[in-house]
Structures are given as C-alpha cells and as structure tokens.
Amino acid sequence: MTARQKNIETRQRIERAKKARSFAGKVRIIIKSLGGEVKVKDITDALDLVSAREKSKVYTALRDLLRDGSIIRTEPGVYVDAKKKEAPQIKEKMWRILQVRKRVRVVDLQELCGASSDYASQWLRLLEKRGVVKRSGAYCRLVKNVAEMPENHEKSDYLKDLRKAKKEALAALKQASLAVNNARVAVEKINANKNS
User: Fold this and answer.
1) Residues near 139 by Cβ (< 8 Å), separated by ≥ 6?
2) Is 103 left (phi over 0), alpha (psi -120 to 50) or beta?
C-alpha cells in the first residue's frame, strides 16, 4: 500500500468516525485510524473541534476509553490503541536475540523465541542470502549489523504469483464448465430431434 493510498484510507476512516453514534466511539476510531501515538490535538483536528467546550468532550471520552481498556496513555496527552500494543512477532524476537548475542544456533532461537526449527532455519538462510549472517557449523554469526531487520520480499512475491495463478485457474475452470454445459444442451437438442 502506497503512502497516498494509506492517507486516503485514513481520511475515509476519519469521515466514518465523524458519523459514529457515540462521541467516545468517534474518538476511538480516530485513534485507531491515525495509528501509533496520537496526541489530543490530532483528535480535535480530525474532528474539527474549535471551542474549549467541544474539546472538553474529548478529554471525557479519553477518560472513558482509558477506563474500559480500549486505549493506553503512553505519556500525558498521548494515547495509543490498546490493540496496537501487541507482543512482538517471533521473527522480531529472533532479530533482537541475534543483535544482542551476535552468534546464535537454531536451538537457541527455538528456546528463547518459541520458533519452530524449520522457521528459525529458514529465517537464518534468508539472512545468510542477504549477507547479514555467516554460518560456521551449527552457529550463525552476525557479520553485518543493520538497524532494520531484512524483509523477505521473495516470499511475498511468490504468494502474489500463487494467488494470480489460482485466479487464472478458477477463471479457466469456469469457462470450461460453461463449455461443458453448452455441449450438454446441444447433445440434448440433437437427441430430442432424433426422437421426434
């Protein structure tokens, strides 16, 4: 998704939020759609609130949302969606372990991160292809310390091609089904003409 598409989607969510039934619901949708850390000013701007009386409703809604656990206050005046604060993925845990230890085995990643041996091996092979780690026996040593974890675009490209092939196969199957039905109707007409 491009940045432009993301901005359009965020604006659409904000417009939907303005139509929500409760004010707290509007505030919750705004926080969710803006993503990350959201300041009170961001919320009031998104809802086009100007007067102090209108803005006071935001603080009441935030208090209610904090009480029911929908949002989390990270610092005074800054909030995040409670569902955004989720546990790191296994590959993020493995990346942190590799950066700290500088040398790991598949077994280490299994024990410390809860990864399966296949997943940990596949991930280390990807890093080896990217030149980030070097294998020596059972260990993989970090040779290129990069700030961001390398992404596996090959797998996403493979899945995209697979979905495209599936879509084409289903279209071909539909055409074949129509052709079989047309042939059946034609055979029935021929048989009906023979019998009359």
Assistant:
1) 103, 104, 105
2) beta
What is the sign of the dihedral through the CA atoms of 171, 172, 173 and 177? positive
* pLDDT for residue 87 is more than 70: no
The most confident of the ranges 12-16, 46-50, 129-133 is 129-133
**For residues 190 and 65, what is the distance between their CA atoms, to the nearest angstrom?**
72
pTM of the model: 0.40
**CA 184/CA 5 separation, integer angstroms:** 47
Most confident listed range (28-42, 77-91, 116-130): 116-130
Q: How far apart are CA 127 and CA 152, in angstroms?
A: 9
Tokens of 41: 């000013």
The predicted-structure confidence for 104-120, as pLDDT tens digits, reads as follows: 999 999 888 888 888 88
CA dihedral 126, 128, 129, 130 (to 10 degrees): 90
Q: Which residue has the tokens 């080896």?
A: 128
Contacts of 47 (CB under 8 A, 6+ apart): 17, 18, 26, 27, 30, 58
Q: For residue 73, how many other CB atoms are within 10 A of its CB?
A: 13
DSSP codes, 129-172: HTTSEEEETTEEEE-S--SSPPP-HHHHHHHHHHHHHHHHHHHH
